[in-house]
Every structure is written in C-alpha cells, then in structure tokens.
Design brief:
The structure is a homodimer of 408-residue chains. Chain A is globular and about 65 Å long. Chain A has an eight-stranded mixed β-sheet, sandwiched between helices. A four-stranded antiparallel β-sheet of chain A has the order 10-11-14-13. A two-stranded parallel sheet of chain A has the order 1-12. Chain A contains 13 helices and 14 strands. In chain A, helix 5 links the parallel strand 3 and strand 4. With 408 residues, chain A is α/β, with parallel strands linked by helices. Chains A and B meet through helix 2, helix 4, helix 5, helix 9 and helix 10 of A and helix 2, helix 4, helix 5, helix 9 and helix 10 of B.
C-alpha cells in the first residue's frame, strides 16, 4: 500500500519549484567545471585560524552558555556590535532594533510571513534577487517590477508602482545581486522620500555594502530615512538586512535585521515558531572573531582579493567577448550582469557552456515575469584569476561562435 | 510622521502571541529563581572538551569547506550517521531519506508549510507539545485533541478523530513533552494500523527516545510502519523527527527529519526558501563529536545524571506534596506532569510560586483548547539534586497551604 503523500500537500506548495540557482550549484560540484554561477565567497581567504582561536576561547570561557539554548533575539554582545556598526551612519539603534537570523534567507522568509497576504503586491527591482522571489512566492506575493539602469531603480517608474498600492519596496542598493548596479545617492533620497510620501515601507537588503573596491560609501536608505523621523530609531520606514555570509563565512548562517522595535518584536515571535533561535555557538564564535575591529581589517583583505578578480574579469571580457555583448561594471560586490544580443537565449547558451565546462546563471531567473532571456549573471568572487582567465576565454569563444553562426 | 506598521502585517500574524514558554524562560534568567519551567538540558554535562577537539580537527582538516555554503539537504557524513542509527531498528534508510534541520522547531514549521491549509485538522495528543501548536497556528491549523492515559493515546478516541479527516497525526511516543508518558508497544501497533487504514500520515516527534532510565526501548512508529510497506523506506506513512538538542547540545540548533524520499525532496525545497541550509560548521563539528560511537557513551552519562535527578524529584514529591496532587512517573525524558485538584488553577499557582522563587509551566499552554487549567509541567533535567530538593520543598509547602486554605 502506497500512502498518497502528494494528495496531502498544502496548496501553497503546489507551484513550488526547486531553486534554479540551487540546482545549478550542483553543476559547480563537478570538479572540472569552471562555475561563475554560484554566489560563493572565496574559501581560500576564510580566516580559519582566527576561527580556531575563537572556538577555543568561547569553549574555554563560556562553553556551557555557548552550547545551551538562548534568546530568540540573539546574543547580546553580537547585537550590540551590529547596532554600533549601523550607528556609524549617524543613527542611534540599540540592541532592541536588532534581530539575529539564520542567514539572510531567513530574514526574507520572515518578511514574507509578516507582510504578505495572498495576492499582495511587492515592488522589486528588475532584475531582482532570486532568493527573495523564492521566499515570497510561498506567501502568494505578486510583483511589480520597476525598471533599473546603471544608477539603480528608475524613480518615475517607482512612483507609478507605488500608486498600485504595494505592501513594501524591496531594494538591494549596493552592488545589486544580480546586476552589480549601485543605487545613486540622489536616487536614494528620492526613493526614501517617495516611500515616506506613499506610506510604503522599504526592505533594504545589503549583503555587499562593505565590499566596495572603488568609489565612496553611499549612505544607507535607513540612514537617509532617519531624517524624516527626527532620528528616532523606532519611527523609521525601513527594515534593513545584512549578513556575515559575505563578510566572514556563509557556513555559519548568521545574518541580521535592523528595524523599529515594534517590528523586531513581531519578527522575534516569528523566530520562535520558525527555529527558536539561531545557533548560540555560532553567534558567540562570530562575536569573538569579529570583535576588536578584526572584521574591518579582514574586509580589507577580501576587498583586495575580489577587486583583483573583478579587474581580471573586466580585462578578459574586453579582450574576448564579441562587441554584441555588454556588461555592467560594478564598483563592488560579487556579480556582474551580461546582456546578450536580443535574439540570444541565455538558458540555451548555458547548455552549450556546460559542454565547454563553464557555467553562469541565466538572467530570466531574476525576473518574476520571465523576461530577461538574453541576460546572465556572472560571479567574480569565487574563482582565482587564472580560472577566471580560462573560464572567460571559453565563454568568449562560445559567444563569438554563436554570434558568427547567427550572422550567417 | 509615523509609519503605520501595524496596518501592514499579514492576517496570519494578527493572532500571533509570544510563546508562553519563551516568556516564562525569562523568569529563569533571574538567578534567584528555581525554575522547573524550561526544557533545558543540564549544561554542566555538556562535552565541552570533546567539542573543542572537534572544532580544532574540523578547522584544521576541512576548515574551508566547513565555513562555506553547503547543500540544503545537509552534510552527507552526518546524514549517513543518522540513517545508520535509524536502521538499527530494522529499516533501510539512506541519506536521501534524511534532512538536517535548524532544530526540531524548524521541522515542525516545515510540516505546517507542507501539509496545512487554512482550517485543516491535525490530530494531537491531549496534552501536546506547545512548540508544535505555535508552529502550526501560523498556517491556520485546527486541532482534534485525543485523550491520553498512562500508556499514551487512547486508540478508540484516535479512531473517532481519524473519521473527521485530519491531515496528519502528531505523536510524541517517548517520554512525551509535556506529560512524560510513553506510548505502549501494543498501542503503537494499533496507531500505525489505524493510520494506514485511514490513509493518514503520522508525524513522529522523538527528541527524548534515547533518554531512557529504566525499562526497554520500544520500537519506533516508523519501524512498525515499515512492515506495512514491505520495508520499502520510500513507501512509508511516517515522518520521523529527532534532534541533537537533547543528545548533545541545543545551542547548535541541529535536528533531523526522516521520511520517504519524495517527502524529503519537498522539505528540501522548503529549506531552500527558509534558510538555504543549516550551518555547515555545526554539522561538521557535530559529526566529529558524535562519530566513533562517542554519542552512545555520552548518552549513558546524561542518562545517569537525569535519572538521579528524576528520582530525587519523585522522592521529594512523595514526601512533601499533598495527597490531593498526583503526577506521572516517566521512565525517561525531561518532564513530569502534575495534576492538581480540579478547583486549583495552575496559572494562579505560578504567580504565587514565583513569589516563593520557584517556577513551572501551567498545563493549559499544552492544550489547543485551553483545558487542563489544573495541570502543570515540571522539568527535572536542568536543576541539580540539591536545587530540586529545595524547589520541590517550596512548591510542596505552597501546595499544602493552598489545599489547607481551600478546605477551610
């Protein structure tokens, strides 16, 4: 007798598909593939020794506490460190504005749980982060995709979208995933003003803000927004998210949300039902690793490494890619965005690329409405400069061939 | 200008309350309270040195891998270890039947996501685990509470409940939280038979199965169920859950689910949207701690400690509690269940108890329908024998006083 499991699933999961990116990551597990598909940090710069020391210190000094249950809100010293860091932008958050989550993905899930009723509209950038769509599809979200250019969201388009009555605006202001584009200061001011005028909250997702390789840091949306609320940390219009996955190590699954206290209290209740709390041990160890400004020093190291890789990729693309293909020039982060000729399908290209042992992510995955068939996301943080040279060469020759065949 | 956050929340969270247990745990943070309220393991027996060695070995040998992103399904050696352990019950699961979750609470959340449509019925024991109700309320579950006695679920009542058409049956067969009761072998067979007959899956939640202080291990429901399906691990009718929180350390947030592969694949998709994957580092470290049968040896140690504490509690209750109060006599686990006289309200008693600096959890929290006002849950794993003597003395004198006042 077979139990008919498939007749028991709730309707919310009927349309559930395995994540395109996660499935593609399986390709990267073949050792002979050069993968620009994932969003992986470079493991060879992980501060393994610092982690070793931190584990030993934590277990020797607060071992029993670190292995025990702890508060849903997170480990207080870590929350304080995060608040202190945010306050460098001229705001005054305290630990009650900070929730530790099990990775940013959990933050995205909580945002869906807290805000999205079946059929609610969410404003997203076009393209936008795939993981957010994946989290919010579960709650029945519909999307209003706002066009972007090399300075981020196009503000006139955003205002039109706000008149539709969305639940919130989702923005990745720095070195966006997938496009690599950064929202300009002028537009940030306009986005914050519009959001306040229409009473629509902003979800600011900022995993890459510290990974800047040129240019100057641009104030966060939460900092710009605070001036509309007399700098009251509990009156703002922004939920801010960031993560240690890109600053230290993703294997810890440690991220955070910053928001007005009343919103954090709701997220804490969701946290209790979702996983009680994030690993106490990982929080204690990460605090021990990050403290005494170690994180600032370490970020300089990874910025040096990623900048070199980005530059090598730019050079190789300039040299080898056919002129029919263009790409963004991110000032930081991990990704750039390629635009192929209109007639070219990136998903088809991927199949051929995998035969040549090189991989990327087709851009349509980053659009809720399936457009962007001729676009692709390329990661430059994971592979060494040598591998980047080889991979871009393979991809470049494939592209040239495609263009040549089409011209015939 | 204040942003009206409260008008933006989705309807599913309008009825959200902070967990009674989590709020009560805040009481236990006052150092002068003797708390029998929490479900905490004894931190003084955490194998801190073994963890230290494991961290060093992991970081020295596979440090980069342990700090990197990893598969949503979990770390393969750990999944293999879990499958091997389950297979000691005469079944033949492989790693494709195992998903690592961020604590059992996440497993409960996933079960709600996968199975519960708004208004669906779920069969639960009366009383049942509070964290499950908390997870499933979010998905709009309704509950059919089936009465229990000292041998667990009453089977005739279960059959009546199955005719109502529930989505699944939720059972904690071993040393149940909160009651401490164990489902007898005979009833297990009957539950499995009924579930198969009515085509209703079983969710078997087993955090305490290895914490047995007397008597013999009783086969798991998944093992009994497997005989209805020709021992095919992918044809069964049970989703099984257990956790390292009670076997090793809850601060890691590491638990697992075992189910037919088609069901695990669905859970994996939910995992991708919820938090991508559980901490790679914690999975590697826990495997390193648990391997080479260390876990079996360690479980003997904690069983020794908890058995002594349970016995001290039994003795003290026998000696001091008034005869109007009765309690269960669990053969394992962490909790016992007290029944007060009908007219006594455990929540009112708690207020007086906190004044005397002793705490427990009122039993009504463990009933979806608010009954059980005269019941309470008492934890015996966390406090030392000395503290148990003092705490039960305080509680016993309070109870005597209450009974005496009422008789007048």
């Amino acid at each position: 007798m077979q139990t008919p499991w498939e007749y028991r699933y709730a309707h919310r999961i009927q349309t559930l598909r395995s994540s395109v990116i996660r499935e593609l990551l399986k390709l990267t597990e073949q050792p002979d593939i050069i993968s620009f598909a994932g969003g992986l940090p470079a493991p060879e710069v992980f501060p393994v020794d610092r982690f070793k020391d931190a584990c030993n210190i934590v277990l020797e000094t607060i071992g029993r506490q670190a292995l025990q249950y702890s508060a849903s809100e997170g480990y207080i010293p870590l929350r304080q460190l995060i608040a202190d860091n945010a306050n460098k932008e001229g705001v005054s958050f305290d630990i009650n504005n900070v929730l530790i989550t099990s990775g940013s993905q959990q933050g995205l899930d909580f945002i869906g749980r807290l805000f999205i009723n079946q059929g609610d509209y969410v404003v997203v950038e076009s393209p936008t982060y795939l993981g957010a769509l994946q989290a919010w599809n579960m709650y029945g979200a519909q999307y209003i995709s706002v066009a972007t250019d090399e300075h981020g969201l196009i503000v006139d388009e955003l205002e039109k979208a706000l008149r539709i009555g969305p639940k919130f605006i989702y923005v990745l202001p720095n070195f966006q995933n997938p496009s690599g584009v950064t929202l300009s200061l002028e537009r940030r001011r306009e986005v914050v003003t519009l959001a306040d005028r229409y009473g629509v909250p902003i979800v600011e997702d900022d995993p890459y803000g510290h990974l800047r390789y040129e240019g100057k840091h641009i104030p966060s949306l939460f900092a710009l927004d605070s001036h509309y609320h007399n700098l009251d940390p509990n009156a703002g219009n922004v939920v801010y998210m960031s993560t240690y996955s890109k600053l230290l190590a993703p294997g810890l699954r440690l991220a955070w949300m910053i928001a007005p206290e009343q919103v954090i209290r709701k997220f804490v209740m969701l946290k209790q039902g979702a996983d009680l709390h994030t690993s106490t041990f990982n929080q204690c160890v990460t605090y021990e690793v990050a403290r005494d400004n170690y994180l600032d020093e370490y970020v300089k190291v990874i910025c040096g490494v990623y900048k070199e890789r980005r530059n090598v990729m730019f050079e190789m693309m300039d040299e080898i890619f056919p002129q029919e293909v263009s790409w963004t020039h991110p000032q930081g982060g991990m990704f750039l965005w390629g635009v192929l000729p209109e007639w070219m399908d990136a998903a088809e290209l991927l199949k051929k690329a995998v035969e040549k042992k090189v991989a990327f992510v087709p851009g349509s995955a980053f659009h809720p409405n399936g457009v962007g068939k001729n676009t692709l996301r390329i990661n430059f943080s994971y592979s060494s400069p040598e591998i980047i040279r080889e991979g871009i060469t393979r991809l470049g020759f494939l592209l040239r061939e495609e263009v040549k065949t089409a011209v015939k």
